[in-house]
Amino acid sequence: xxxxQKIKQAILQELPFFFCLPAFIWQLFFLCIPLVVMILMxxxxxxxxxxxxxxxTKNYVAVLDFLHFKIILNSLFLALxxxxxxxxVAYPVAYFLAFKAGRFKQLFLFFLLVPFWTNLLILxxxxxxxxxxxxxxxxxxxxxxxxxxxxxxxxxxxxxSIVMFYCYMPFMIMPLVSALEKVDENxxxxxxxxxxxxxxxxxxxxxxxSWPGIRTGFFxxxxxxxxxxxIPLLMGGDKYVFVGNAISHYVxxxxxxxxxxxxxxxxxxxxxxSILLLNWLLKKIIYRV
Length: 289
Description:
- The chain is mainly α.
- The protein is built from 15 helices and no strands.
- Helix 5 packs across helix 9 and helix 5 runs antiparallel to helix 12.
- The termini are far apart.
- The relative contact order is 0.12.
């Protein structure tokens, strides 16, 4: 093998690395470096920057109180509510797309994703016309005679949850479809041949095999819902404060960037611990059903 062939072979061997290089660069500049900068800012005293860089814990001390932990707990509860509701609705939809839709699967997926080609803010404002007192939903319920006076559906936890549920549903469906498509149908036939009922096959074969899709979709929605800023602000008014709103207040309004960085780090640690706990619980439940 001459030198040119060796160089060509070496390039071919490293080709996957070069294809992954843009992703590494993206992660470096838009995740790793901002994360390091945020951690450094959370332990810096602005008053001392002009003369010397002072490392301090006062930013963390300022956010270690009941009010900030209540904001984090409210965000965890909202994220859990949205992620579980998305999972309960998305799983049957994904099951239908993976096993029953047949040649119409791509068409159904297209219709599922079409609304999300629209800007997120337009989607959110569209829900105002559905949930307001004179909106579509109140008119529909009134026409059916189920209610006599319009319900207050806006600026509450229901409005926040339903809009987040709608916006994040594709993030749950797509990983589930991908996982369910990989289930070997021979295993399903073997289970039925051995006398298992449909539900036993589902609980003992399909559900455990779809765990990678459940985990990916659930935590994708959970993390996005935890840090959501626009939907709670627009649909909840000023009644509710979640992590995203608190961070934007510190950084954009109060200009207390160091305290906002400390609160971001603290809420990120709480989020990580909750993910580890939920991952352990969900895995236990699915593999022991």
